Amino acid sequence: MVALAHLLYRPYSESMRGLTRRWVLKPPPPPPEGKTPPDGARPQGSPSEGRSLLQRVLAARGLCDPQLVERFCEPKLNHLHGPEMLPNVDQAAERLIDAVRQGQRIVIYGDYDVDGIAATAILHHVIKAVEPEADLHSYVPHRLDEGYGLNCDAMKQIKSEGADLVVSVDCGITGREPAATAREIGLDLIITDHHNVPDGGRPLPEAILVHPCLPGSDYPFGDLCGAGVAFKLAWRFATLWCGSERVSENLQKTLLDMLPLAALGTIADIVPLVEENRIIASYGLRLIRQSPLIGLQALIEASDLTDEHIDSEKVGFILGPRLNACGRMGHAAEAVRLLTDAPPEEAQTIARRLTQLNRQRQQTERTIFDQAAQMAEDANMTGRDNRMIVLAHESWHPGVIGIVCSRLVNRFGRPAILFQHQGDVCKGSARSIDGYSIHDALMACEDRLSTFGGHDMAAGLSLNTADLPVFTESITAHANERISPEDLTPAIKIDCDAALEELDLQTVKQIGALSPFGRANPRPVLRVNRVTVADPPRQIGANGRHLSFRVRQDEGSQRRIIRAVWWGAGHLAGDIAAGMTLDVALEPKINEWNGRVSVEAEVRDVMLRES
Fold first, then answer.
1. Is residue 15 part of a domain?
2. CB neighbours (10 Å) of residue 395?
C-alpha cells in the first residue's frame, strides 16, 4: 500500500470502537525554488528517502532551512521581540511609572483563569520590585456573579475605594461601556489583552490599549497570551523605569523569575507554542523548579510534583487545572493571592485547597458531561446534518461548562456551546474545532447575543433565554454552511513514516527535545507500517482500562521489537491477536522504570492489514 501525502485511512479501530478517524500524513514542504522532485520520487516522510527521522519530523513541520531548525531547536531569550514594538506599550508603561512614583492607588484587573491569574502576578511582582511600598491591589471578577471581563459596577467600586489607575490583563478589548464608565468617573484605564479585536469597523474602548493585533500594529507575532502581553508590559516598564535597555540586576532577576508564570499562562491558554510562545514556555519550564515564588512552589508540592520533571503536559493537566479550579468553583482571588504575596503557611493552605477544589471540579465535570452528551445525541446534534452542539440546563455549573464543551468537541468532533439558565438570562461557554472560528460565528449571530468575547477556539457569551431557540437555529446554520462532513471526522495528523529500527534511544530523545509540546507543536506522531503483533495483548491499569502489547518489524537491517501501550483501549484486548499485521500511528516515548530506560510506543490508532 503506497503512502501518499493526501491519503486518508479508515483504520481498523473504526469497526472496533464505532469511531471514524482519518489518518492524515502531513504534506511535504514545497521544494526549494527552482528545483522539482525527480520523477518517481518517494513521498516526503518515507523512511528510505535519505533523511534521518528527526529531519523528517522537522520537515513535516515546515522546518527544512538550517537557520530555522536551529532557531526552533535552540530557543533563546534574545529572540524575543523588543517590548517597545507593542502598540501603545510606552504610553502604558509611562502612565504606570507615574502612578508608582506619585504613590497613586493602582489596581490590576485580571481574568479568573490561569492566564489572567499569571498575568496579574507578573505585573504585581515587577511593580513591587521597583517600589515595595507601591499602593498596589488586584481585582478579579467573580465568575458566577460578574462574568468575564471588565464591568461598569466594578469600575465604580474600584474608584470608590480610592483607585487612580486600573490596568486590565487578559481582558478588556471589547469593554467599551466599562471604559466609558471609567472615563466618566475619572479613573484612568490601561487595557492589555490578546483576545480577538472587534472587527468590521467597530469602535475600540477609549483607554490606553496594549494588544499585539490592534489595527495598524507592526508587532511581528500576534499569538501572545494575556500573560505574554503582561510580561512585555512589565519588561517595558522596567526598561523605562531604569532609563536604559539594560535594567538593574534586581529587575533583571525579577523578569526572569516571571517567565515560569508567563509559561503557565501560555501553556494553559492553549496558544500556539511557536515563535515567542515557544521561547517563553521553554525558558519558563526550565526555571520553574528554581522559582523563588513561595506560592508556585507550594502549588508544585500540593500537586505531588516535587520530584517530577515539569513539562507542558504537567502544566496543562496538573498545575493549570488547580489554578483554574479556584475561579471555577470558588473565587480566583485566592489563586492571585497564592502567586503574589501569600506567606508560606497561607500559601500551603491555599495550594491544598486548590487541589480539593479541583477534585470537586472533576466530579462536577463528569456529571455534566454525561448529561450533555446524552442530550446532544437525543437532540440529533451529533449527526452529520447538525454540525454544532448548543445546549442549556438550569443546573449546570457555569464555572465548569467550558471544560465540558472541550470534552464534547473531543467526543463528537464539532463545536459546542453550553449555557446555564439563570432566569431570563443564559450564560455560556463555547469551544471550537480547528478551521472554524467560534468568534466569527458569534459575530455573525451577535444580534441575538447580550455579550460575547474570546478568540477563534474559545469564547464566552450570554443572551436572553427567550432568544435561545433562534440563536441555536442561526448558529447551527452558520456551522452547517462552513463545516464540511470531513471536518467532523477526527483526524490523526501524522508527521511522517518510520521504521521500528529507527526508534533507538538517542533518536527518541532528540524528538523529545522538540518540546515543549502543545498547540501548533504537538507531540510527533509516526506511522509505522506492517508491524506484527508479537504476543497476545494484556489489559493493564485500573479495571484493565488500557492495553499493552509488543510489536515487531522484520523489514530493514534488523528485527526490532518494542512495547506498545494504548491508553483507554483495554476493551479491545479481544480484537487484537498475536500474529496480526498492523499499521500503527504512534508517539515514541522514553520509559524509565526501576533504573531501566527503554523506548516504547504510545499508540494513537491502528489499521489492520489484510495481507
1. yes
2. 9
Q: If you average pLDDT over residues 12-24, what whole number do you get?
A: 54
Residue 558 covered by a domain: yes
Residue 593: give the domain boundaries. 8-35+42-61+495-608
Residue 181: Cβ-neighbour burial (10 angstroms; 0-12, 13-18, 19+): buried
Separation CA 294–CA 346 (nearest Å)? 10
Instruction: Give the CATH number, domain containing residue 193.
Output: 3.90.1640.30
**Edge-first strand listing for the sheet containing 22-25:** 8-9, 22-25, 491-494
Q: Is the dihedral of CA 532, 538, 544, 546 positive or negative?
A: negative
* 467 & 579 share domain: no
**DSSP string computed for 4-47:** -TT-EE--THHHHHS---EEEEPPPPPPPTT--PPTTPPPTT-T
Same domain, 499 and 474: no
Q: Distances from the Cα of 41 to the Cαs of 24, 37, 47, 556, 568, in angstroms?
A: 20, 6, 13, 20, 39
Residues 198, 263, single domain; the answer is yes
Establish how many alpha carbons lie within 13 A of residue 151's alpha carbon, considering only the half-sphere containing its beta carbon: 16
Q: Decide if 325 is inside a domain.
A: no
pLDDT in tens, 546-581: 999 999 998 655 678 999 999 989 999 999 999 999
Question: What pLDDT, in 10s, does the model give residues 69-95?
Answer: 999 999 999 999 999 999 999 999 999
CA dist 539 → 388, 482, 551, 583, 588 (Å): 36, 42, 16, 21, 20
525: three-class secondary structure by DSSP: coil
Secondary-structure percent of the chain, ordered helix, strand, coil, rounded to 5: 40, 20, 40
Per-residue confidence (pLDDT) for residue 62, from 0 to 100:
92
Q: Classify each residue of 281-300 as buried b or exposed e, where b means 16 or more C-beta atoms within 10 Å of its C-beta.
A: bbbbbeebeebebbbbbbbb
Phi, psi at 521, each rounded to 5°:
-145, 65
For residues 103 and 80, give the distance between their C-alpha atoms in angstroms, rounded to a whole number. 32
Q: How many structural domains is the chain composed of?
A: 3
The residue out of 246, 272, 292 marking a domain boundary is 292
pTM over cut 0.70: yes
State the pairing for strand pair 208-210/188-192. Answer: parallel
What b/e sequence results for 444-456 when a residue is b if at least 16 CB atoms lie within 10 Å of its CB, and e otherwise? ebeebbebbbbbe
DSSP 8-class letter at 343: -
Q: Look at residue 521 and give its three-state secondary structure.
A: strand
| All residues at 6 or more sequence positions from 96 whose CB lies less than 8 Å from its CB, including other chains | 106, 127, 165, 167, 190, 233, 237
The H or E element spanning position 363 is helix 344-378
C-alpha count within 13 angstroms, C-beta hemisphere, residue 272: 10
- Coil, strand or helix at 112: coil
∠ CA 434-363-195, rounded to 5°: 35
Evaluate whether 547 touches 570 at the Cβ level (below 8 Å): yes
**Residue type, position 36, single letter:** T
Gap between the Cα atoms of 515 and 106, Å rounded:
38
Per-residue cell: 254: 525579577
Residues 6+ apart with CB under 8 A from 571: none
Are residue 163 and residue 21 in the same domain, yes or no?
no
Residue 518 per-residue DSSP state: B
Q: Of 215, 147, 238, 155, nearest to 189 (Cα)? A: 155
Query: How far from chain centre, in Å, is Cα 165?
Result: 31
Q: Is the pLDDT of residue 39 over 80?
A: no
